Amino acid sequence: MNIVIIEDEELVADELELNIKRLLNEQIDIVQLRSVREAIAYFKKAEAPDLIFSDIQLGDGLSFEIFVAVPVSIPVIFCTAYDEYALDAFKANGIDYILKPFTLHTLDHALQRYRQLKQIFSSDQTPQYDALMQLLANPETQTAASVLVYHQDKIIPVKLQDIAMFYLENEITHLLTFSGKNYYPNKNLDELERLSGKNFFRANRQYLVCRDVVTDVSSFFSRKLLLNLNIPFAEKVIVSKGKAAQFLTWLTKG
To answer: What is the average pLDDT across 218-223?
Structure first.
């Protein structure tokens, strides 16, 4: 069996290769590719593999660009850090995915889906990679339904509607729910800001707050704003004077 892994993080690709070989009891040849450019060049010359594992966001673009430039009629399983907002579209297009960080169980399930995917790719149901590329490239569509968090030895989804705020403490990202539960997301604040949508506002470097957690706002020193929250929280959440007008405009749109 011939497999191609398209992943720009070498350690992730090596781990994926190791686990694939651990799960498949057969002779396997695996090629690792690091970029959109390298993959396009490879598929133009090489014989098509039996299966492709591909990250979505590579250093030089979205991996969908590869399959638009060089159409392939073989199964592709995406290894993605994206949350649920686009995954229904993957299924509708006859594509499977595993969420990062993947586990041996999720990888095993994806490999079991291989034969079903092969049947889909041999039919007329060609995945619309160009449409998926536009979906993920459009910031307006990138609101997540939930955020993956680490809890004990598990990775669980927390619905966006249940999240009061994200914040940094000792350079570690925290997620605080309205019910007072505290988790550790697998994304930094910049990524969470992009994915959380218009109902969240980046008050400053440390805090990304939900509109529904803000009870009211008080004036603070030097035209800054102090947010009064409807949940217990020990620290003051302050909006800088440079963002004050933008914040008040955002608050009125709720």
So the answer is: 79
Give residue 89's pLDDT.
Answer: 47
Shared domain for 31 and 96, answered yes or no, is yes
Q: How far apart are CA 222 and CA 104, in angstroms?
A: 53
Residues 9 and 125 in one domain: yes
Does 151 score more than 60 pLDDT?
Answer: yes
For β-strands 57-58 and 172-177, DSSP reports them as: unpaired
User: Taking the complete model, does pTM exceed 0.70, yes or no?
Assistant: no
**Domain harbouring 204, CATH code:** 2.40.50.1020
Tokens of 189: 């604040």
Q: What is the Cα–Cα distance from 99 to 88, expressed in whole angstroms?
A: 13
Ranges 129-143, 216-230, 234-248: which has the least confidence: 129-143
Q: Coil, helix or strand for 133?
A: helix
pLDDT band at 155 (very low <50, low <70, confident <90, very high): confident
Q: 121: Cβ–Cβ under 8 A, 6 or more apart, which residues?
A: 73, 74, 75, 94, 127
Task: For residue 248, give the 3-state DSSP assignment.
Answer: helix
Spatial CA neighbour of 111 closest among 121, 96, 101: 96
Same domain, 115 and 75: yes
> What are 239's strand-pairing partners?
225
Rounded alpha-carbon distances, angstroms, from residue 212 to 127, 137, 178, 197, 217: 39, 28, 9, 13, 13
Average pLDDT for the chain = 82
The answer on 179 and 137 residing in a single domain is: no
**Sequence-distant (≥ 6) Cβ neighbours of residue 63 within 8 angstroms:** 6, 36, 39, 54, 55, 56, 57, 78
